Amino acid sequence: MTVNEAKFLSKKIMQAGEVPLLVGHFGVGKTDIARQIASETGRNLIILILSQMEPGDLIGLPAKENDKTVFLRPDWWPENGKSIILLDEINRAHRSIRNAIMQLVIDKRIHNHILPEDTWIMATMNPPDDEYDQADLITDPAFISRFFILDISPSLEEWQKWAKENSIDENVRKFVEKYPEFLYTPSALSLRVELRPSPRSWYKLSNVLKFLNDEERRKYGYSIAAGILGPEAAKAFVEFGHIDLVPIPQKVLLEGIQQALKDDVDQANSLTLRIIDYFSKLDGATTQLLHAHISTVAKNLSELSSVLPRDSFYAIIRFIVDKANGKENSKFFDELVEKLSNFEQVRSVLDEI
């Protein structure tokens, strides 16, 4: 998702009393999101760089009081609830402070110190890497399930705006504008643990959905659900809620699709699943119908490249290619691939496959 989308959802998640975890490579703007939210909501931002902290820095030092051991408040402890605590580099936190992080996220307290009411918490991390010493922290389902995962990939427009505001060299800005592929190297997000639905995750999702109106649910429903349920359950959940809004696959293939779908991630993902399911269940009569209009089908499929997210469009074309190399209806799909190759936007995907 873009930086602006991540900022919007992070704010909604924290309003619901939950904790967003922003995942993105160095320099994509994770900390800037926290700063902007703090500025927009009049909150004090407390940044805890966990990879540089010792246990005493996070939980406070022990002291003796009335013949009992107590822990002093750490110096970063917020004075009031108008604060945001940013747990930075959470996957690089030392094992010795892991339990304190859990207590802070779950109970909003550390030892005998309770956070002021309405204190917000958010976390950031880079994508998992074998060089990270504490990568095992994020393989623990009990830990990762406490967060809403938001995977950030900044758009060129967002970066250009930021670059101009921060006086980035003009030649650098012009180069990136001409060659946007060099802005950053995208890589698939892998948390080394599979997000799965649970009673807790459904409860957390329900909390956040209460802060979204109908339009926001349609636009961000999949993204917010995938961050706590995992993609499979999220797609099923979104499709359940929007099935009447998603165009029928056969109508899309024969009549085309409206550009309005381009801005609705939920419907776009649902449509992808339904087209693949439709192609996997073709009967003889339907195959003949599509074959009689195969040029139209190919053209309408190619136009999906401007509507669907790239990975969704890639999944559809990949499925068609696999069917062409299979046994069932292979003649139809082979001819469909040939027709699709006439369209430049599809040819690049076919070349990758």
TrEMBL record:
UniProt-recorded name of the protein: ATPase associated with various cellular activities AAA_5
Q: Which domain of life is it from?
A: Bacteria
Domain AAA+ ATPase intervals = 16-156
Organism expressing this protein natively: Pseudothermotoga lettingae (strain ATCC BAA-301 / DSM 14385 / NBRC 107922 / TMO)
- State the Gene Ontology terms under molecular function: ATP binding; ATP hydrolysis activity
